[in-house]
Amino acid sequence: MATRRRRQGGKAAVQRNSTRAQPVARAIRVVRLLALGPGARSLAQISEEVGLHKATAMRLLRTLTAEGVVQKAPQRRFHLLHPAYRLLVASRR
Fold this sequence. Notes:
The chain is 47% helix and 24% strand. With 93 residues, the protein is an alpha+beta fold.
C-alpha cells in the first residue's frame, strides 16, 4: 500500500493512496491529451496542458517513445504512433 506524508497544521499526516500509481496516471494523461487533441504537440504545450514540469513531461515522453506509443515528429512535436491508441483512450471516456 502506497503512503504519502503531508504536513498539516505543523504535524505530518499520512495519506494513503493504494489505488493509483502516479507515474502511470501521468503517462495516461499525456496519452489521452495526444489522442484527443488535434495533431502533434510540443513539449511546452504538453507540460502546460497536463500540468507537469517540462522535465517530468520529457521523461514520460521519452519512455512512451521508447515503448512505441509516441513518436517525435519534425519540429520537436510529439504525436501518438498508432491510431489504435486513440481507440483505447476513446473507449475510456
